[in-house]
Design brief:
The protein contains 19 helices and no strands. By secondary structure, it is an all-alpha fold. α6 packs across α7, α15 packs across α17 and α16 packs antiparallel against α17. The longest helix has 26 residues.
Length: 409
């Protein structure tokens, strides 16, 4: 019993903390903008958002936010402010230095979405939850072999080469040069969606497929649990910002300390929520975060999962899951803007849908995808989200048929 208490924190204290910070955020965050979109007295995240629309909101928010944030990826917020004021539109951009001369069409997504598209393809092909071998198969069958250094990180070329061998898929992540990065957390949204409402299933699956990018039980995988937990919780009927945050604290980093070291996830998110509780816009929030995250001087110094996921949870709370407001906040936060925006808008969209996102951005992102010669999939945003939604419905049908069959045994 004592060991159990050590592993599982004080959930009552956590709940009290959440109620306090959420109450403060409700008063401070976007009172005028959100008042125009939500009837008085309606809880944020509830209402008539269908599950299909939540799937679309998650995918559209992630992809459009990634494309918008890619323009200023790696910039300080001071530079973003100086050159753009508030960046709230899609622009063309160039990535990966002198390794290529490809100027991307405005709305072009980047490495994280390429990673995510392969998960989506694997799920659509299987019409069910996926394991590491399913995802490896999608890599080998669909990944552009020339993508590394164009629309994928250079190290992903080495992972693809290993995926083509007889190495077990779950062993591939052991040979990735970078551990603890946001690579998995910023792309694992489909795992939360195919497990909509099933938090335990989402956690189990991200631990499984995450081994293509990370060592089992490593921090990169443990932080990805936060993203899939939030998305699976957000899709539940009647979900709210409060219930999603509660699901994170109730389910994440709950490891058996005899075998797996905790990553300090709940404590770090709690500190950040307290730090930003009185922030009413991203300009206030980014200054607060400067006191918490400032790593530099090493490869991917802006892109560690703990920083990005923690910031995303705070953006989600501050914007009360308004997907468009979360997108602007992430894009203008500085540092790893595309990954932050992908996570913040993915969680927000899974709760509130995509109605707040200007339709012109959806159209432009779809167009950019249609002319992208290097992507592994040219599905539109709607085709992508509906493919996942239909796979989820197929999974439910299988579960129902199994329950009916075995219920009479």
């Amino acid at each position: 019993m004592e060991k159990e208490m050590i592993r599982h924190d004080n959930s009552i204290a956590r709940r009290s903390f959440l109620k306090g910070t959420l109450a403060a955020a409700t008063i401070a965050s976007f009172p005028n903008a959100l008042a125009a979109e939500k009837p008085a007295g309606e809880k944020q995240g509830t209402g008539s958002v269908s599950l299909r629309d939540k799937f679309f909101g998650c995918i559209a928010g992630c992809h459009i936010g990634s494309a918008m944030g890619a323009v200023v990826e790696g910039w300080s917020w001071e530079r973003i402010e100086r050159e753009h004021g508030t960046l709230d539109k899609l622009l063309g951009y160039h990535h990966y230095g002198n390794s290529n001369n490809w100027m991307r069409e405005a709305g072009t997504t980047e490495d994280g979405v390429e990673r995510q598209k392969l998960m989506i393809t694997a799920i659509i092909e299987k019409q069910d939850r996926i394991n590491a071998e399913d995802l490896r198969r999608a890599w080998v069958d669909h990944m552009n072999p020339n993508a590394a250094g164009l629309v994928s990180e250079p190290f992903e070329g080495a992972l693809l080469a290993m995926a083509r061998t007889h190495i077990p898929a779950a062993d591939i992540g052991k040979y990735c040069d970078y551990s603890g990065l946001v690579s998995l957390s910023r792309s694992c949204h489909p795992i939360g969606l195919i497990n909509a409402g099933d938090i335990r299933g989402a956690i189990d699956d991200v631990c499984e497929i995450g081994q293509l990018y990370n060592t089992a039980n490593s921090r990169g995988i443990l932080w990805a649990q936060v993203v899939v937990t939030a998305i699976a919780a957000a899709t539940k009927p009647g979900a709210t910002v409060d219930s999603v945050l509660g699901a994170i604290f109730d389910n994440c980093d709950k490891v058996d300390a005899r075998f797996t070291r905790q990553a300090g996830i709940r404590g770090e998110i709690e500190r950040a929520l307290k730090l930003t509780a009185d922030c009413s816009d991203f300009r206030q929030m980014r200054e607060k975060f400067d006191t918490m995250y400032s790593g530099s001087g090493i490869p991917y110094s802006h892109s560690y999962a703990n920083e990005i996921v923690t910031k995303a949870v705070c953006v989600f709370k501050m914007t009360k899951a308004n997907t468009w407001e979360a997108m602007k906040a992430g894009v203008n936060m500085g540092r790893d803007t595309d990954c932050l925006t992908a996570v913040a808008t993915g969680i927000s969209g899974a709760l509130s849908g995509a109605a707040s996102i200007p339709n012109a951005l959806v159209k432009q992102t779809d167009y950019a995808t249609s002319v992208n010669p290097h992507t592994n999939s040219q599905r539109t945003l709607r085709e992508t989200s509906d493919g996942l939604y239909n796979a989820f419905k197929a999974r439910l049908a299988k579960m129902k048929a199994f329950a009916e069959e075995m219920g009479t045994a």
